[in-house]
Amino acid sequence: MHLGVNIDHIATLRQARQDVYPDLLSAAGECIKAGADGITIHLREDRRHIQDSDVSTLRKKYPKTHLNLEMAAVDSIAKIAVRIKPDAVCIVPEKRQELTTEGGLDVKGNIKKITSISRKIQRAGVKVSLFIDPDIEQIKAAALAGTDMVELHTGTYGEVSDPLRPHYNKAQADKELQKLLIAAKLAKSLGLQVNAGHGLTYQNVKPLARHKELFSEFNIGHNIIARAIFVGLKQAVQEMNNVVR
Ligand code: PXP
Questions:
Q1: Is-contact 226 189, C-beta < 8 A?
Q2: In CATH, what number does 2-243 get?
Q3: Residue 125 labelled as part of a binding site
Q4: Residue 153 Cα, ligand 1 centroid: separation in angstroms?
Q5: Is 226 in the pocket of ligand 1 (CB under 6 A)?
Q6: Digit-coded pLDDT (tens) for 161-177
Q7: Nearest CA to ligand 1 atom 9
Q8: Is-catalytic flag, 45?
Q9: How far is the C-alpha of 114 from the C-alpha of 154, rounded, in Å?
């Protein structure tokens, strides 16, 4: 099981003052020292946290560390991906006003555009993942689009499955977990690598992490960075690594 640490919110803190600290490269270094398998960053169209230079400096400083770039299906960012060549790109839906990525990609409704942008990125030797809800039709469409991986959106599961969150509901959490497992099985049977992410915490990742036969990678950010305020980034990543493994 691989842990990709999403460090967007280190950049959020930096951009809050448009300053140079906290240093993103040092943050990535702490995550790697703590045993993270990869670093995940989202280069948003509005550049609210990660900046173009972050992508290239991370790639240069840690050439051997798995770098996963999240991006919208737009040509301008695809060009950056093709030039910098992260190890993987995860295509996500993006709306300007959202606080974070809401809902999965509609692959079925945009199959031509998503297939074409995925091909461009794959031709540069970069693996492509599509961030989708645990929905049978979307998984079938993802396979048709020729993607290498899917990342299942765990946001709904995340909201109802952590006892500390206001919408915690055990019955609902079990239902959402089942949806994720069924979706993961289907995606695997179609030859896709299955990753998962969004809203995962030290608590609610446990039932998913038991299914090592289904999930290859978890991408987790906000909860780790929040924990790091109290215990430091290295320890926060080590703790998540222990839970995930
Ligand atoms: N995976 C994807 C595709 C995302 O868009 C995000 C949020 O940027 C994450 C994982 C990480 O989510 P969180 O910060 O809630 O752990």
A1: no
A2: 3.20.20.70
A3: no
A4: 8
A5: no
A6: 999 999 999 999 999 99
A7: 198
A8: no
A9: 21
**pLDDT tens, residue by residue, 97-131:** 677 667 899 999 999 999 999 999 999 999 999 99
Residue 153 annotated as binding?
A: no
Tokens of 146: 């020729």
pLDDT score of 204 more than 80: yes
Q: Which two tokens stand for residue 28?
A: 């990535």
Based on the residue annotation, tell me whether 198 is a catalytic residue of this protein.
yes
Tokens of 161: 């499955």
Look at residue 103 in the predicted model and tell me its pLDDT: 85
Q: Residue 228: pLDDT band by 50, 70, 90 thresholds? A: very high
Asked if residue 201 belongs to a known ligand binding site, the reply is no
Q: What number of other Cβ atoms are within 10 A of residue 223's Cβ?
A: 20
Catalytic residue among 30, 42, 94, 217: 42
Q: Is 49 in the pocket of ligand 1 (CB under 6 A)?
A: no
Distance of alpha carbon 94 from alpha carbon 104, whole angstroms: 10
42 carries an active-site annotation:
yes
The tens digit of pLDDT for each residue in 8-43 reads 999 999 999 999 999 999 999 999 999 999 999 999
φ and ψ at residue 147, rounded to 5 degrees: -75, 160
Its pTM stands at 0.96
